[in-house]
């Protein structure tokens, strides 16, 4: 998929452009899709929420492989957080919705910034599978080694 970044790339490498259509093209035919504030590109069958959706509108909503937020009535971080945490594996914020949010706040929410022809200020992607990548220092070999308990004082 276009938005997927390889975390082994050199720091500062520009991520690939992000579009909703490219993300949809990378999905399996039977993958579930949720679109907030617009239509799915290519007329794909999906569940939709209006642009003025609130967190209360998400009650009873299931899980989706991909969520695309195209338009929102207001910058509602709690709505994005709920979609990100409970309802989608991958969440793309693009189009008019991407311009509503401060880039630093989106990064604080765990989204990656990507250039996009759909949004002048770029689009944002949250991918649950690549969000918390394994780190070398956080492993049994480098963390709380019992053989070092008598050697070092922490």
Describe the structure.
There is one protein chain. With 154 residues, the protein is α/β, with parallel strands linked by helices. The protein has a single domain (20-127), classed as Rossmann fold, CATH 3.40.50. It is 20% helix and 18% strand. A 6-stranded mixed beta sheet has the order 2-1-3-4-6-5. The N and C termini lie far apart (44 Å).
In CATH, the architecture is 3-Layer(aba) Sandwich
Q: Average pLDDT value?
A: 84
Q: What strand order characterises the main sheet?
A: 2-1-3-4-6-5
Order of helices and strands: HEEEHEHHEEH
Q: Which CATH C-level class is it? A: Alpha Beta
Number of helices: 5
Shape: elongated
Total DSSP E strands? 6
Examine the coordinates and then state which fold CATH places here, giving the name of the CATH topology: Rossmann fold
Which percent bin holds the helix content? 10-25%
> Rounded to an integer, what's the Rg over CA atoms?
18 Å
Any chance you could write out the topology, listing elements then pairs?
Elements (H helix, E strand, L loop, with lengths): L19 H6 L7 E4 L10 E3 L14 E6 L7 H11 E6 L1 H4 L4 H6 L3 E3 L8 E5 H4 L23
Parallel strand pairs: 1-2, 1-3, 3-4
Antiparallel strand pairs: 4-6, 5-6
